[in-house]
Design goal:
It is a single chain. This protein has about 130 residues and is mostly beta strands. The chain has one domain: Carboxypeptidase-like, regulatory domain (Immunoglobulin-like, Sandwich), CATH 2.60.40.1120. About 10% of the residues lie in helices and about 50% in strands. The strands form three sheets. The chain has a four-stranded antiparallel β-sheet with strand order 3-2-5-8, with no helix packed on it. Strands 4-1-9 form a three-stranded mixed β-sheet, with no helix packed on it. Strand 2 and strand 3 form a beta hairpin. It starts with a helix and ends with a strand.
Length: about 130
């Protein structure tokens, strides 16, 4: 009986290995700002170049990211915000305070990005070194 269970497990493992989803890929990597780990967390987005399908992406935490994306050509946007000031939410003495944020890196990495990447099935590692906004 034990031998039969091992054979069934081996066959099921081989079948599962052939069932890799060919429509998705895992994207992982690192983002640095001027060669160093970013001071704040950010976000990376992969937007379909053909305009079809949904945007994918993930948080950049401690300079690293990992997310699942549909395969195909994507436009890459990287955002790493910085605090530029603070504002009261209400005009009262005990009002909570909200941080005012602005983008810390050049627009060529987000709003004006021309960076493209083709996601393929399986896991892929890509790294980006972006420059701080002047």
């Amino acid at each position: 009986m034990h031998h039969r269970c091992l054979v069934v497990f081996a066959v099921m493992s081989l079948l599962a290995a052939g069932c890799v989803d060919k429509t998705k890929g895992i994207v992982t990597g690192e983002v640095t700002v001027n060669g160093a780990k970013p001071e704040r967390n950010g976000y990376i987005s992969f937007i379909p170049v053909d305009g079809k399908g949904s945007t994918s992406g993930g948080e950049i935490a401690d300079g690293k990211f990992e997310f699942e994306s549909k395969v195909g050509m994507k436009r890459v946007e990287i955002r790493i915000p910085k605090v530029t000031g603070q504002k009261k939410l209400y005009n009262t003495p005990d009002s909570p305070i909200k941080d005012l944020m602005d983008e810390s890196i050049d627009a060529k990495f987000n709003d004006n990005s021309e960076i493209q990447y083709e996601v393929v099935p399986g896991t892929q590692v890509i790294n980006y070194d972006v420059t701080q906004k002047k």
